[in-house]
Amino acid sequence: MAQNEAVDVVLVGAGIMSATLAVLLKELDPALRLEVVEAMDSGAAESSNPWNNAGTGHAGLCELNYTPQAADGSVDIKKAVNINTQFEVSKQFWAYLIRKDAFGTPKAFINPLPHLSYVSGDKGVAFLKKRYEALKPHHAFAEMAYTEDKTVLEQWIPLMMPGRDPAERLAATRVIGGTDVNFGALTNKLLGYLGQTQDATVKYSQKVVGLRRGAAGGWTVDIKDVNGGSTRQVDARFVFLGAGGAALPLLQASGIDEGKGFGGFPVSGQWLRCDNPEVVNRHQAKVYSQAAVGSPPMSVPHLDTRMVDGKKSLLFGPYAGFTTKFLKHGSLMDLPLSVRLSNIGPMLAVARDNMDLTRYLVNEVRQSMDQRLASLRKFYPEAKAEDWRLEVAGQRVQIIKKDPKKGGVLQFGTELVAAKDGTLAALLGASPGASVTVSIMLELIERCFPEQYANTWGSKLAEIFPAREKALASDAELYRRVSAQSNEALELVQPALGSGERYA
To answer: TM segments (predicted)?
Structure first.
């Protein structure tokens, strides 16, 4: 009998999660033998693809759903601060690789772009002002500016102002030092860098079809060649399931206790895209607003400038949809085949408690192009139909998990699930995902490689990461210094202000 291939680590999926973890592990221990396995014929083909992932560069600067308002009117900024500092940790890792001359110019994947929050109406303006007053004193948001002055708004968002009712009350905040990140380009740079190191391979058109405990305590992974149909077995001491929507079925196949009870709720997405330079060049920003009353957090509308392969476009959305696929290139049987005795209770409870979400998705699916354009015109009143086309985005599989009170809850976020013995981990969920990948992968390393993390890898981690989230959140001077160092390496020069513009 032929002996199985043997490696230290198998990473399933060639997206931003696996690519980040693989490079981090090789930087910490160059002797590790790694294999990345991807079912598609290229990297970043699903959620990491720039056209499948419009919410790029999440830093808590403009996303209003990260600062919920309590019944007493107060605004909670903890999540925004956490996401902001996690994004700063990601920037430290990218800056470290740029300084190593690991993958050329940073402009291929990250560019400066102002982040704005925009609202209308008395209620929206009152909320945004409270949000600004809560965030502004924190050093991570010290550069935030607020205005209700329409003359200033015409400078900040010139595309969005013409054609409005003069009596309409508007407000916006702006942080000039936001970014746009092409996570597809970044993923492929990470994979390319990984391929240059010893004992690291990235294999495409290879699908994981089986996963079971190995005789030596690790895992045996059954891998099928998508094109030829042959199968092979790889023994690994550690397995990471970073395959986006496909991570849940693989986690279930592993049989680990920690994965029981999880279910998935797939949500598809669509965007309106504009490539007309006359329109695109009038909007240089990422602008977020509020979701409609009763709509889920994933529905927060935004009008984004995107830089992909050196060309600028605008995306507006999202428009949600529903399919039973867990991946854009998945199967309609993904959802039904994910139902287990351990998760059917939480899934039924979520179905019972989220009828508003079901109605929302049904209405979204039934929307006509005219209705989608009507939503766009709330942002951009003079939008012309001929300038915009519909793009199908990637799949998001929201997490369903057990809840002692409700039976099950639908969770809009990401969750790291790891085996007790540290030999397997999976990442479930969606936003803010890619932007905080590095922090999530550092948490994985701490949980699954605790001895190395605490001892042998400490000095290298300190070299790559001058400061982590908690220190960045509490130490203003440290935050400013470390952020400035990352920005310099990543060439994130703040755009010059135009005539008459002001930061605050």
So the answer is: 6-25
